[in-house]
Design goal:
Blueprint: H1 19-29, H2 32-45, E1 49-51, H3 70-81, E2 98-101, H4 135-146, H5 150-161, H6 173-180, H7 184-194, H8 207-217, H9 223-229, H10 232-237, H11 240-247, H12 251-262, E3 284-288, E4 294-298, E5 306-308, H13 310-319, H14 323-360, H15 362-367, H16 377-384, H17 388-395, E6 399-402, E7 405-408, E8 416-417, E9 426-427, H18 428-440, H19 450-459, H20 466-475, H21 481-495
Parallel strand pairs: 2-4, 3-6
Antiparallel strand pairs: 1-5, 3-4, 6-7, 8-9
Helix pairs in contact: 1-14, 4-5, 5-7, 6-7, 12-21, 16-17, 19-20
Length: about 500
């Protein structure tokens, strides 16, 4: 076979994402907490960036614009700080319009001080939260106080390292005995000692043992209760008939025992090492306007206050002599200006998307979740002439404060469920709400089956299949009609 070399000329088009474009995309999907951490890192790395400080008289920060003449800077700032009002088409079912406005300060200005905006030397909210003892420290103190024999103390400390976050022994005790060089009987004695520590149920090897330890601590582990623990699978199935046979108890006794069982903690270790709950800070605020409509504005508290330091750049530029210094300054200056512009663009995009969501979901804000419209990312993307992926990034980990509460922007995007007639489609979230309301209102003697729910929903004009009703019910962790009927019977007997 003859082989020869030849040259071919080919032409193709490829999309190349520059590092700055990749970083801008990353900024778009960051939450306000992640954005604050990112900007903090940039402030440490780039000497030409600084935090915006409020003016002593006006309380506003006016950033310096190094790339434009002074006259143009003033005009641009005036135009940027002015209130922008946009009127869209009225949402379905009303004449209200959505109004959006920027804060009077530049968009890239926000809080970097953990909730402090007045500049005073006060501790932030996160610094005033009381710290709780960890599970490890809590049990280590008890080992030191309760176990005096050195060998047992070493074994107990080793067992402590085998605990998972729920407080269960996650390791193999036979392997632990081999590792410690002791007998299994010796290790079992140590396990028995540490299982009497606080909180009750700690160092258990399974759920049954955990509940038994807690019942023994309450002096309620009698033979009937032990039989109930031996048949936890029947408890999960709510099979009262079999439970009565296994425990030899009446319906009232079984109801009382199940009530005691529900009062126990199946994961005692989770009471420790719990992180303080973080309050959701909305990225967008929605307020009703006088005369109708909505005012949509960005929450300036979530927007980092950063600006470029033109004066410092001019000073050090005069002292740069070699090529490396000049390249370093040019890189940092370009990076600083890009970050300011990227934060500005990010804020504008979030506001545009939020404004359109409010316009589309006007009836939800007025009347509630029953009037939530079907909405997908494509609907917003087409109106704003954005890509669906951009809308997806904007709505991820962003929250909107409305008169009806704080919602993630993703909440307003729901699938569409058809109507039985010629009416408009229904939102999947609204249908879920309707199903939950029907189940919550059902009487104990007339529990609705999935087929019964389908009939009611179809009578209301919602064309839905039985399997869809079952899927929505399970997603809300609502048990089946059989289990709900058993639960209501037990609940009514316990009350009587």
């Amino acid at each position: 076979m003859a082989m020869s070399a030849k040259l071919d000329l080919r032409q193709s088009q490829t999309l190349v994402m520059t590092p700055q474009l990749q970083q801008a995309i990353k900024l778009l999907q960051l939450s306000n907490i992640e954005l604050a951490a990112f900007v903090e890192q940039e402030l440490e790395r780039n000497p030409l960036l600084e935090r915006g400080q409020p003016d002593a008289e006006t309380g506003e920060t006016q950033p310096e614009q190094a790339e434009e003449p002074p006259a143009d800077n003033g005009a641009a700032a005036a135009d940027f700080n002015s209130t922008e009002r946009t009127t869209g088409e009225p949402a379905e079912g009303g004449d209200d319009v959505a109004e959006s406005s920027y804060d009077s300060s530049p968009l890239w200005q926000g809080s970097m001080s953990g909730g402090r905006f007045d500049g005073e030397d006060l501790a932030g909210v996160e610094q005033t939260v009381a710290t709780t003892a960890s599970l490890y420290d809590h049990l280590a103190r008890q080992i030191y106080l309760e176990i005096t024999e050195p060998a047992e103390r070493i074994a107990a400390t080793y067992l402590l390292d085998l605990l998972d976050e729920a407080g269960y022994l996650a390791g193999d005790l036979d392997e632990a005995a081999r590792h410690l060089g002791c007998t299994r009987a010796f290790l079992d004695r140590v396990v028995d000692k540490v299982q009497h520590f606080d909180p009750p149920g700690i160092f258990a090897r399974d759920l049954k043992e955990c509940l038994a330890l807690q019942l023994a601590d309450l002096n309620r582990l009698d033979p009937a209760m032990q039989a109930l623990l031996d048949n936890l699978e029947l408890v999960a199935r709510r099979d009262m008939t079999e439970l009565k046979k296994c425990c030899g108890c009446s319906d009232d006794d079984i109801a009382d025992m199940l009530g005691e069982l529900k009062a126990l903690d199946p994961k005692p270790g989770l009471a420790f090492d719990a992180e303080p709950s973080q309050t959701v800070i909305p990225d967008v605020n929605v307020r009703p306007k006088q005369g109708g409509g909505w005012q949509v504005e960005l929450n300036s508290d979530t927007l980092p206050k950063v600006l470029t330091n033109q004066r410092y750049y001019a000073e050090i530029s005069d002292g740069a002599r070699n090529k490396a210094d000049k390249e370093f300054l040019a890189e940092k200056w370009n990076s600083a200006n890009w970050l300011v512009k990227a934060l500005d663009q990010r804020a504008r995009t979030i506001l545009r998307v939020a404004r359109e969501i409010v316009r589309q979901q006007d009836l939800f804000l007025i009347k509630g979740v029953e009037h939530l419209r079907p909405l997908v990312l494509r609907d917003i993307a087409e109106v704003l002439e954005l890509h669906e992926s951009t809308v997806s990034r904007v709505t991820s980990n962003k929250y909107m404060a409305t008169p009806r509460g704080i919602f993630e922007l993703k909440y307003f995007f729901t699938a569409s469920i058809g109507s039985t007639g010629d009416g408009p489609a229904h939102s999947a979230e609204a249908v879920r709400h309707r199903i939950k309301a029907l189940i919550d209102a059902e009487p104990p003697d007339k529990v609705l089956s999935d087929d019964g729910l389908v009939e009611i929903l179809k009578a209301d004009g919602i064309d839905i299949a039985r399997r869809t009703v079952a899927k929505y019910r399970e997603s809300m962790r609502i048990p089946s009609s059989v289990q709900r009927r058993r639960d209501k019977k037990i609940h009514s007997k316990s009350k009587s």
